[in-house]
Amino acid sequence: MRDGNEVWVTVGAETDIPLQGARIVRSPAGEVAVFRTAPGCVFATENRCPHKGGPLSEGIVHGESVTCPLHGWVINLRTGMAEGADSGCVPTVPARVEDGQVLLDIASLGSREAA
User: Fold this and answer.
1) Tally of domains in the chain
2) Under the phi-then-psi rule, with left for phi > 0, alpha for psi from -120 to 50, and beta for the rest, what region is 113?
3) Which of 3, 38, 57, 67 could disulfide-link 22, Cβ–Cβ 3.0 to 4.6 Å?
């Protein structure tokens, strides 16, 4: 589905992602971690911590953040920015839920791949 310059693709049911958990979506541009917070908000980021490349999808989701399982960096899921004393950023992917299905903007992945 096209929406302006965005290309939205369904990647699965919202309920396939546990509350305060994540699932991985594989793309030609790499792995995307799709997170669901306790209130049910959905976010997506590259599945690599900016610190040492840890798998963010295996981290602990709390509030609108995830804690990397390798070294405890906390990443804001909305912005991709490291929180606290740490600095760095993980690319985010626009995500939304429609009719119980999670959609990702794959056009943003393509622009990252070309960069």
Assistant:
1) 1
2) alpha
3) 57
Q: How many CB atoms lie within 10 A of CB 5?
A: 9
Residue 100 belongs to some domain of the structure = yes
Look up the domain containing 40 and give its range. Answer: 2-110
Please indicate, yes or no, if residue 46 is contained in any of the structural domains.
yes
| pTM higher than 0.85 | yes
Residue 115 inside a domain? The answer is no
Around Cβ 113, how many Cβ atoms within 10 Å?
11
**What DSSP string runs through 51-68?**
TT---GGGSEEETTEEE-
| 21-58 pLDDT, tens digit each | 999 999 888 899 999 999 999 999 999 999 999 999 99
Measured CA to CA in angstroms, residue 113 lies from 24, 27, 38, 68 at distances of 18, 10, 31, 24
pLDDT digits (tens, 9 = 90+) for 63-113: 999 999 999 999 999 999 999 999 999 999 999 999 999 999 988 876 554
How far apart CA 12 and CA 103 sit, in angstroms, is: 8
Residue linked to tokens 């959905």: 42
